[in-house]
Design goal:
With about 170 residues, the protein is mainly alpha-helical. Helix 3 packs antiparallel against helix 4. The two termini are about 35 Å apart. About 25% of the residues are buried.
Length: about 170
């Protein structure tokens, strides 16, 4: 079996693809941040919900909106053969990210004593930054896995020809 160098992207092409992926991740993430922070502010300062509870509720809503963006826009070309596995892992890693974010907010508020509304937003922001790095790595590595690269396009072409010939034979019978 021969391996064609044309079928494998160069290092610069892979880095360009990764940077485009990071930009897409940031766009979807930014929309989630807007949802997260707006809902957190409303729940904490208007409704009067405790900051950690408001954070959990706001983060859960943002997780749902982000999943839709990742699945149907950014990672739409990724393997979706097992949606149950994908959603389970997405929720698991999102939950860990939520714990990172909420733990950081709790630390800044209850240990460091940063308790004003804007200090709470700062603690939430710090937790969100840490959790975002974790989520980006886990989503792209385990949740939205790339389709496997085909080593030899000639084999694929031969297989397609054989399948087409078999279809033609079954139609003729």
């Amino acid at each position: 079996m021969t391996i064609s160098t044309e079928s494998r992207p160069s290092l610069s092409q892979r880095l360009r693809g990764l940077s485009l992926e990071a930009v897409g991740f940031a766009v979807i993430g930014a929309s989630g941040v807007v949802v997260n922070f707006a809902l957190f502010w409303i729940l904490n300062n208007v409704v009067g919900l405790a900051s950690l509870r408001a954070n959990i509720a706001a983060t859960l809503v943002a997780i749902a909106t982000n999943y839709l963006g990742y699945r149907y826009w950014l990672y739409k070309d990724r393997d979706a053969a097992s949606r149950k596995r994908e959603i389970t892992l997405f929720l698991l890693f999102s939950g860990i990210g939520m714990l990172i974010e909420t733990g950081t907010l709790g630390f800044t508020q209850y240990v460091l004593g940063l308790d004003t509304p804007f200090e709470k937003l700062g603690g939430k922001f710090l937790g969100l930054v840490i959790a975002t790095v974790f989520r980006f790595i886990s989503y792209r590595t385990w949740v939205f896995k790339a389709m496997p690269e085909l080593e030899d396009p000639e084999v694929v072409q031969e297989a397609e020809l054989l399948l087409a010939a078999e279809d033609n034979r079954s139609l003729a019978n």
